[in-house]
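Reagents: none. Just compute today. PDZ domain-containing protein.
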Amino acid sequence: MYLYRLEGVNGMIVDWLWEFLRGLGRFFLNPVVYWFFICVLFASRQRIRKERRFFGTKIFDIFYEVKRTTSVSLVGGLILSLLSIGLGIVFNYYVLLLVSVITILLSLFLRFSFLSAAYTLGFSYLILLAIQYVYGLETNLYMLEALQNVELTSFTIIIGFLLAVEAMLLLRTDQRESFPEIIKGSRGKWVGQHRLKKAALIPFFALIPGGLIESFAPWWPIFSIDGDTYGIILIPFLVGFEHVAKGFSPVVTAKQLGNMVLILSFVVIGCAVASYYYSFMSLVAVMVAIVGREWISYRHRLRDQQKAPYFAPSSSGMLILGIIPKTPAENLGLLAGEKIVKVNGKLVMTEQEFYEALHTSNASCRLDVLDDRGEIRFVQRAMYQGEHHELGIVFAKERVD
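Predicted 3D structure written out:
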């Protein structure tokens, strides 16, 4: 009897391992994997063209929109995998195809604004709900029948946790991860702004109908669809955001947005848990997610427009709009929003004065910098042959040539 049980346990472990391997292979069958790289590639090229038009040079490398997202993606994917496998969340291929199509359509114009799970999964939920309502249970089309046979509560749980992942991406954004731009302000003058734009691919394991895995407990899987056996699939989910910071610093904007999205995720998760007992709460959770995420974006735009431009040219020094990575300016610890008052002891008010003062000494440079607290600090470093001739600083110009 003991040997029989041992063989049964070993067989179950082998089945699970084999399904995990098959799940990894199924990952590459999802079009979102390839769309992620295509979308970010073209978004990066579009951004680089704008940088060259605004500033005469490329500022950030290609694929910079995904910088510092790996750790959040892997940790978020691991937590979602434990959640989806532990609860037994089951998807079928037609549902995954629907989510993939919605994701691609919402990012077709290279804008990441609608890559929040509130929109991609939220709209997918509404389509599935409409199919179930319109067609009922009587249809001869297998695809529609498969789309009807979905446990919608599982959608709301995934939406809530992916909103938390989006919040983490926002909260981790620092000065080096937003993109400077120049636009014409309301008074006809050129002012600077920063674009917060990031995308991440979140891979997580979930169950699919048909496979080697059988239910190991009466309660598992909780969110199941028809079928007695299950397989495993690694699902790639695309999460992103895009916001403009004109009246506030980009870091302050990212923190404010991140905190609000995090609160929204908790509310959605709470509604999702309640939907296990009251099915109508799943629709409430989705509507809260969609309306809440849109309200957060609208509230930010309204507050940002009401503020005076944060990156307007100043009469008290040269305002730093951005820093080119891997240049002396980054090494000096200069930050966007600070003002350079003096260069090598000389007051500077224009780029020409900055350039001339910088080259009064070829061996080193000393800068008097006014930070965002109104305090002067001094930075100094040696200059070496071949380094960026303007230190790698992007200024908020009065006009664009």
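Confidence is low (pLDDT under 50) at residues 1-6.
Action item: order primers for follow-up constructs.
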